[in-house]
């Protein structure tokens, strides 16, 4: 491999890394929303896979059925995180043009977790 080709590859890799960092910052600002119980519980998550807010309708709060409320919250949180991960994966796919590149394919690598 010539030095020129190697230099071109290194420049492309550096550009991809810079674009990934920019995408990470943009993804942290984006949010997704998920609900459960017909909208009784609403969860908002960021592209950084952090829960931003949880809203619970008063009608679903029943001291005699705490388990149902816990299940609704859990379902909404899991769905919000799944949607946030999907959103980030779609953004990453656009950036890498659908290629699976070792070392950058997982969210843990994207957000340093």
UniProtKB/TrEMBL annotation:
Q: What does the record list as coiled-coil region(s)? A: 6-33
Name of one Pfam family that matches: YbaB_DNA_bd
Q: Which NCBIfam families match?
A: DNA_YbaB_EbfC (TIGR00103)
| Family membership noted in the UniProt record | Belongs to the YbaB/EbfC family.
Q: Where in the cell is it found?
A: Cytoplasm, Nucleoid
Subunit structure, briefly? Answer: Homodimer.
This one is known as Nucleoid-associated protein JZK55_15310
Keywords of the record, alphabetical order, are: Coiled coil, Cytoplasm, DNA-binding
GO cellular component terms, semicolon-separated: bacterial nucleoid; cytosol
Tell me the organism's taxonomic lineage: Bacteria, Pseudomonadati, Nitrospirota, Thermodesulfovibrionia, Thermodesulfovibrionales
- Answer yes or no on keyword Coiled coil: yes
What is the role of this chain? Answer: Binds to DNA and alters its conformation. May be involved in regulation of gene expression, nucleoid organization and DNA protection.
Cross-referenced PANTHER family, in alphabetical order?
Answer: NUCLEOID-ASSOCIATED PROTEIN YBAB
Give an example GO molecular function.
DNA binding
Q: Which SUPFAM superfamilies match?
A: YbaB-like
